[in-house]
# Entry
Amino acid sequence: MLSDGLNELGYKNGNVLPASIKGIEANQKIIGLATTIYAPHGNSLPFHLAIYKYAKNRVLVVETGNYEDGPYIGDILTLTAKLNLSQGFIINGYIRDIEDIRKLDFPIFCKGAMPNKPSKKDEGTINHTIKIGNVEINSGDIIVADEDGIVVIPLDKIEKVMENADKKLLKEEKRKGLIKNFNFSKAQELEDYFDLMTKDVREYILNRKF
# Structure
């Protein structure tokens, strides 16, 4: 619903991050304000620094430049972040020590796990605008993540997004009611299902050339 609300405001694909970034366990959820981190070329140093200084009550969102050759964090720094009251990690990359991290009951959305050691060098940024996929993310944006995916909501748009999402929810509940009470045994033609369809599907059928 939130991504639908962002679509209504003109955000492409509902401001959703790539589906390759997933929770490391089922039913994980994150809701919180972002701290943005740019950590290119496998460099975990800005991630470490953000855990110490910018983790409290924040979701650490890490853009890696699509680095694929190693992980960014293991169980020790994850434990540190949890005890420093971080609300979770969103990483466009990999972690390690995944079995031990799962025992910490700390939400992480990432691409997966790799066993090799991260590097640390003087490059990258904290609290600057980053881009993951087609989505720009700023520190202070609202991150909402669950099994369906990750949505980024600009803080100044939250009221309008929630308003749009509530309207969408009401429409969907009404449509579900129509579906539950529909007499499917009597429907024969596509037009018989018009009451169940969205407007764009109805228009397609009315204008079809087959």
Observations:
- The two ends are 34 Å apart (CA to CA).
- The mean pLDDT is 92.
- The domain at 2-158 is CATH 3.50.30.40 (Glucose Oxidase; domain 1).
